[in-house]
Amino acid sequence: MPVSFERDGDIAGGAGADLGTDLGFGRGENAADFWRKNLGRTTMPLGLPRSADWWTGLPPEQCAGYSHEQGQLHSLDIPNLATCTRQSVLDYFNNTWTLNELLFSSLIGEEPFYRPPYHSLRHPLIFYYVHPSVLYVSKLRLAGLLSAPVNSYFESLFETGVDEMSWDDMSKNAIEWPSIEDGREYRRQVYAKVRELIENHPGLADGHTQIDRENPLWAIFMGMEHERIHLETSSALIRELPVHLVARPPQWPALAALHPVENAEVAYPPQAGQDFPQNNLVTVSAREVTIGKDFDFPTFGWDNEYGSRAAQISDFAAGEMLISNGEYWQFVADGGYHQKENWSETGWRWRSFRNVKWPTFWVPDGPAGTHQYRLRTCFEIVPMQWDWPAVVNYHEAKAFCQWKSLKSNVHFRLLTEAEHQAMILSDNQQSESTLMPAPQYNSNLRQGSECPVDASLGKGAKLDQENKLDKQSKLDKQSKFADLFGNVWQWAEDHFHPLEGFKIDRLYDDFSAPCFDGEHQMILGGSFISTGDEATVHARFHFRPHFFQHAGFRVVYATAGDGAVVHLSDATSKVSAVVDPYETQTIFDEYMTLHYAPAEVQMPYQGSISTVSGPVEATQFPQRCADLVNSWCDKLGIQKGKALDIGCAVGGASFRLASAFAQVEGIDLSAQFIAAAQTLQNVRKLDYRYKVESDIYENACATVDATAAAKVNFRQGDACNLPAEWADFDAVLMANLLCRLPDPEACLKRMSGEQAVLRQGGLLVLVSPYSWMTAYTPRDKWLGGYLDSDGERHFSEDGLKALLAPDFDLLEVADVPLLIREHRRKFQYIVAQAMVWRRK
């Protein structure tokens, strides 16, 4: 076993943990020890091989895709929705469902189900064991194929995953999760319902029309492709677990063939041309490319795949292969992780916070400074495979490019999405109409790990020696580039962005759009474990730059042009619709003025100092909203323990609530607003400016009370996907928020029910002008302000009463004026409506 190294403030092993013996909380057990309370409740055997009652659907041996010769289950290709038969859909469903359960059968005992990941940025794996089945139920109900929940508590608790906003956005994981047996039973019930639909729905009868996004059966395929996404992401979380908690299931695809290692050691230092292939640059000529999938293409697709984008690419040269572990070792051994000049500002802060010294899946295997490593795969530790691709995050990939640029005095960068498409076309391996990557690529679970970076070229080890799916003796066409698809994803320079003609999928309205934020980097080409839609040429996926997935990179050199890269911070009008309007300086200044400027600045026209008297009563809006909460708590004798300010913006109401409550949580989607609120909390002051006239501003300084600041916690997050661990708040405030949410009902449903954030007897205060706009909220999600098909008017007040009355008592309805200063002679005057509710 490898030696376990301890580092100051962190546990060793790349990005914060030793993947050999102690990855996770390890010896320095975090205060989030609450998770251990979930242990000791499971009586079912959780070793390998799993017993027959583990499988809630078919066992692997009975699934389509199982090779009796190899004893392994592989993935089926994505169905053609114009020609699929009822049996082929059932086969694909069983293959999907059992592959996921086969993956989770790698977890040995209870601990890996409940143990939080070492970075605390994701839920424990018990969540991802149940979550895909919950998604089936949610989408089938939205499509009208199921009329009732299967288990409403599970469908609340396991509905929403985590998209952490930052590498230090630590989840507390302080949740008492259901037992593994209860999760298994829920999966069994959902499997039966989905199977019954597939076996009996008339829309799958012979000769059916093509199933498209408007067909209710689209929900079944959405559920299957969603589960396949989590097959991949869960495997990465399993790869992060301590190795003694996992084992490779016998029916899982085998590792790629390993290089024989004499004397149980790999030679150091690794040599190019001997231990890993020489990676040459290959030129691609200038051309125009088109990205996007037609809406009538006969396979399932996520909404971001549809539409079109044309781009003109200049000449460029790209690495023939992905960057291998051997190439990346040179960066590590040269001190690349310690040289600040290699890193972006954010990347360096991430590296410093995690005290990272090598890639996260490298396991140190010698004294400090010798740079000897072994390699962690999903289920085991193997000798370092220098010719396999380096698995790193975006920050590490960019740092390598900068290091290589400084060493060679030539500018290297990552690939762009448009350049990737140009490489595909110039390589003559695919045509634009092809669906699945060519069979020489290590994708669609042909193998159970990465493989040599030159395998798909036919130069190195055979792609699939052990599995014999592709003997690799001879390729039909000589490829210029290895791994255009598969092996590992490739980090791209582009921000995740929509194509022209993008339309939100009505069944999953928050799958893509919330991530068009300039905070998510695209990844290209899929990995060895990408299956279904992820393994098609149309796949468009993304992750935050600090996130680890089965992802690597290749380098690009271009003397001219930027590869038609898309950065949302400087995007053209093609993507302007998704740029957050609250991130502009003007809006920021207006909100700081609204929350912190004195009344005489917010409305300078007051009777005592002007011949004109403005609506002074409309100033100090955030503070008046907080006072409304406080006064009603006093009237009703509600304890002032915990308050939640949803849509807190820059924090004015949160700090006011903290003058009366013991603890206040503030949450807002805007990173800029949260950063300002956190600065005020930590420093107690923040400079801002308010406009006088055109380019003339006055400087000002916001200040907060130290006592109140100590009781507030701010986090960036989505009001429609509140953290699962939030519960038992005494009061919740939502001011000027509802009509800016993509799904206000989803937010309000978290106020009550089995997974409620508000305790029984708690206070809910809603303040809204009901300014519904399709730019923020799809029309079918409006709570009011519309005419139905009979011409009848529906008002928001009535919609809220109908929605909340079963679980709440309405205490007060009142008008609340709001004033937003634009400059000294222009103001927005709004009269919002306040509704005060108490949970029954």
Walk me through this protein's architecture.
This protein is α+β, with helices and mostly antiparallel strands. It folds into 3 domains: 32-245, no CATH class; 281-324 and 387-572, paralog of FGE (formylglycine-generating enzyme) (Alpha-Beta Complex), CATH 3.90.1580; 585-839, Rossmann fold (3-Layer(aba) Sandwich), CATH 3.40.50. The strands form 9 sheets. Strands 22-19-18-23-24-28-27 form a 7-stranded mixed β-sheet, with helices on one face. A 4-stranded antiparallel β-sheet has the order 5-8-17-12. The protein has a 4-stranded mixed β-sheet with strand order 15-14-13-16, with no helix packed on it. The longest helix has 22 residues, at 218-239. The model is unreliable at 1-31, 460-477 and 570-583 (pLDDT under 50).
- Oligomer status: single chain
Per CATH, the superfamily of the largest domain is Vaccinia Virus protein VP39
User: What is the correct CATH architecture of the largest domain?
Assistant: 3-Layer(aba) Sandwich
Structural class per helix/strand content? alpha+beta
Largest sheet: 7 strands, mixed
Number of strands: 28
Low-confidence residue ranges: 1-31, 460-477, 570-583
What level of helicity do the residues show?
10-25%
Sheet with most strands: strand arrangement = 22-19-18-23-24-28-27
* Distance separating the two termini: 57 Å
Strand content: 15-25%
Quickly name the level 1 CATH class of the largest domain. Alpha Beta
Number of helices: 18
Mean pLDDT level: 88
Rough outline: globular
